[in-house]
Structures are given as structure tokens and as C-alpha cells.
Amino acid sequence: MATYIAPNHSFSINKPTEPQVLLRELQRIRQMVIHEGEETFRQWQPSITRHSFVDSALNLAHYLALRHEDLRQLQVALMPWGLSSLGRIEGRVLPNLDAVIATLGMVCQQDPRLLPHRPPLDAFYSGDRYLAKNTEAVFGKPYNQRRVRIMVTLPTEAADNYNFVRELVKRGTDCIRINCAHDTPQHWLAMIKNLRQAESELGRSCKVFMDIGGPKPRLGTVLLSKNKQRIHQGDKLLLSEKAPLNADKKIFQANCTIPEILFQLQLDNQVWIDDGKIGGKVKSILPEGVLLEITHARSKGEKLRPDKGINFPDTVLTLNPLTSKDQQDLDFIATHADIIGYSFVQEATDIELLQLELQARLGANSCQPAIVAKIETAEAVKNLPELIVHAAGKQPFGVMIARGDLAVEIGYQRLAEIQEEILWLCQAAHVPVIWATQVLENLVKKRTPSRAEMTDAAMAERAECVMLNKGAYITEALTILDDVLNRMEAHQSKKTPQLRALRSW
Fold it and tell me: What is the pLDDT of residues 107-119, one digit of tens each?
């Protein structure tokens, strides 16, 4: 276990801190970051066989060590001296620290031999280059110089409508997404053939992202109470192992499509249904399943429908991340996908399982498709550093912030905070991020965007890829998103403002 080096000063916002004090504190932090970071990196090294990821893994280890401390007072103390407040340190931890220390050393007239060398420009900007290179390894070259890629989910009609697919590529789609929870391998093959034809005609590349379904629990057969058509707060729902056969006057009934989950639940565990529209708590554990008391529903009630997703945020589920259907789908995906979306991945062994399945189908020495881990649970967030190392240490890798399930699992009020932390961590590892779920949802489906979702789309510039879902107005939404991202890139790159001349005043 690394030795913790305690801070030796507290800072005041009421008077400037002497540069000598700041210098000593930054030297202490640098020593701690190197000591703890390199110990973490040594633990990771056996999992890293991809040489191009070594520097990124070390920077990630340094970043994790740095973020073990609360640096807010130090940041404020650095600002009056015109020095970096360390607020954009993610991709270059040691070079940023060394640059600030070297400058403070000059201010303090410190002997240069007692200070770290000022980093060369090449080292200072290497993190940006690594991230750009890793993004290109996953998503290909950028379209029309736009840094952020755009991914579009294909509807079933893309299998038969070539002109639709061609229009998506023409308008700037960098990656098409095929959700393997829907359609068939015959549909998928037709979609990919249409895409390849469009690529050939238009002279540009577009990647194929195939999303394996994973163990997503859903409602199976639903039987309503004989007295009610909608479920309300205070009602009871029997969530059972087997499909219910006979309606009951007092309670609603439904079976869970992954019944083994029910036997992992405990009293008072939360259960959310239909993207959080219906919430309940386990009140009784019965031989046939669990009895829920509904705690959240609109005052007019909610419709309980088959095939709606179920989330269990209080329960760390022990499930095989690859279902039998996923195994069958992988036979097709392994040879047709450029990128594989991995649903409900939670720990490093899940990554290793998929890697072994791909090797079994493609051979250990063949070119492996990129993997994108979809971060959908609190457990996945907690294990994100290990997921990154085990995946990116062997092949091109990215992370999707799957905001739909993630919001239900961690609570909507924490979503923005956790989204930021995922972005920071991935930038420290130089790993590309996909900003996903309900981007421009109203525009895609109804043709009129909300003000809030336009702001959300603009903030997506901080990721490396933005995902649009299918809808009747997807081509229009694609054109607008392309315009928004290009405009935002003139103002901001990741978290760094670009001080373009303002034209509004």
C-alpha cells in the first residue's frame, strides 16, 4: 500500500499565499503522485500488452493518485500568480505539475537542480495526440475536420432503403449503430451492404458499431389488476419467476425475463421499471418471486407494459454479461463489426470474457474489433479504471456514457456529476467517450428541439462521439448536430475555452 504524504499547509482566499509555500506544496503533491501512481501502474502492467497504451495507463494512474486529495484551496491560491490552476490537467498530469513547479521555482529563485525539468512541448501535448490517435483507432478519421464524431442508430428500414443510408453518410455520419436487440442477422447484413455501397459512392469511410444486448432484465407477461388499468403509488406488483396465469383483484402481476435476479434481492431493495417511470420497493420475498409496493408513479397512474426494462440499483447483480443470444450474435458480429458495444459490463473479468470469445472466433493473432464499454451501473463506474486498463491494454477501446440506464441506477440527481467524472477519467487514460441517450430526442422524433436538448448537444463537444437514436427526422437532426458541433469547436476543445474573436458585440 502506498504511503500517504500529508499536506503541510492550508490556504486562505483572503490573502495571497507566498510562492515558496505553493512550491513546497506542489513538490509534495508531485512526490505523492509519482509514488502512488507508479505503484498502481505496476499492478496494472501484467494486463497491458498493447505498447501504445503504456504511457496512457501511467498517466491514468498518476491522475487517480492526484484526485485522492481535495485540491480546491490550492487551485484558488495558484490563480493570483497567473499560474495554471490544474483544472485541465487530466491528459497530462506530470507535465502540467512540472510546468507549474518550474515557473514557481523561477519566481522563488530556486536552484534549478532541485526542481523537475520544465517539460518540453512534445511531452506537454502528448496526451492530446494520444487521445486523437485512440479516437481514430476506434472511429476512423474525422469528417470534414470536425473533431467530434457522430453515431446514428439505424432503424429496420435501413436494410431495404439504400438512399436513406446514403443520406446519413452524405450528411456526416461517422459511425452507424446496429442494435442487436432488434432485427435479425439478415437485416444487419443488408444494412452493412447498403453502408459499404454508400461509402464507395461518396468516397468516405463510416464505421459499423454493433451493440450486443447483454442481460437486460425486462417485464415478460403482464396481468393487470381486475380493478385497475393503471398502476398507482401504493399499489402492489408481484414480480415472479414464471409468467402469471390468472389475474388477481388486488395486485398487478408480471414475470421477470431474467428470473435468477429475483433471488438476489433483499427486503426494501429499490426496483425501477420503464426507464424510471415506475418505482417500487421489495416488501416481501415469496417462493414465486418478490412483492413490490409501488413508491413512484404519476398521480394519474402508469401503464404497465410487457418488454419494459427493469433496474435494480440497490443490488449488485451477479450475471453472465454475455447471454446465449449474445453468443449467437457474436458469430456474426465478430466478422462484420468495426466496434462492439458491450452492454452491462461491470468488472474487468467481463472484458476478459468478451476478449476470449472474440479470439475463439477470429484467432489470437487476427485484428480484433474495438470494444466500447457501456457504463450503465454504479458498479461499472466504480470499476472504470480496471475496465479501461484491461480493455485498452489489449485493443482499441472506448467508453459510452449510457445515460438512460445509468440515471436510473445511480439516481437522476447524480447523473451530471458522474458524467463529468467519467469524462475526466477517460481523458486521463486518453480513451474516447461516446455521449449517448436522448441526444436531440425531440428533434429526432418530433422535428422540434427543446432548448435544453440543444444545450446538451452543444456540451457533447467535450466527448469524442455523440450518438443519435432513430426517429422520423434523423437526417435533419444529423445536419443540425453537425452544425452545432462545428460551432462549439470554434469556442471550446474539451474543457479548454478557445478565445475566438466574439462577433456579437
Answer: 999 888 888 888 8
